[in-house]
Amino acid sequence: MIIRNASLPEQTTWTHPHAPQQEDEVRMGRSARMREAVRGHLRTAPLWRNSCLTSRGRVGFAFTKEDLTEIRDSLLASKVPTATCVGAIALCRVTVPAQNTSLGPEKTPFFQALGITAEISRGTVEILRDVQLIKTGDRVGASGATLLNTLNLSPSSFGLIIRQGSDCGSIDHPDVLDVTEETLDSPEGIRELASVCLQIGYPAVESVPHSIIIGYKWVLALSVDR
């Protein structure tokens, strides 16, 4: 699979949790270096040519012999919280829960500036009730970023984005992984498959009846013209 994330190191090894004996690997890097690495294997693995052409930006390759759908789900679920930066856009709503912050009394004005009700308890600042600090889409201010980092709260995380899937030299959109046998057997799936086969001229069981009807219409049209 071809993946993208600008925040992972250039070489990362990732192990599929359901296959401890089989190590699935992720290799990250800049597009120029990744294409250069792929070109070095084109002589022995010519099917990699399409992967080389689609490598743009900071990309990576996930190598696996396991089911691609399971690997895709595991990769997307692997997210790492990141430190909050001033000016960053919050990807989710951040609520500061009521808790003892372990901060000294000198930090009381800091909480007052953020509109957070707090009191001194046993020599430390304690937040009395839950406070919604940041809404989704808001920019994080300096005071908010400092508080979130102090309390180990984060409105954002790093994760992988699946750009394309590759198998036997073909490059497909990741949505193809969601196509199951049930999808193909449904009336809607049969109709879509027949339509595609007719457009590209590839005969299939689903498109044969339509091809016969179209051929019959052509023969009938020629007979009428004569």
From TrEMBL:
Keywords: Ribonucleoprotein, Ribosomal protein. GO terms for cellular component: ribonucleoprotein complex; ribosome. It comes from the Eukaryota. Residues 86-152 form the Large ribosomal subunit protein uL10-like insertion domain. Residues 1-26 are annotated as: Disordered. InterPro entries: Ribosomal_protein_uL10, Ribosomal_uL10-like_insert, Ribosomal_uL10-like_insert_sf, Ribosomal_uL10-like_sf. Pfam families: RL10P_insert. The keyword Metal-binding does not apply. The keyword Cytoplasm does not apply. PANTHER family: 60S ACIDIC RIBOSOMAL PROTEIN P0, LARGE RIBOSOMAL SUBUNIT PROTEIN UL10-RELATED. Belongs to the universal ribosomal protein uL10 family. Ribosomal protein P0 is the functional equivalent of E.coli protein L10. This is Large ribosomal subunit protein uL10-like insertion domain-containing protein.
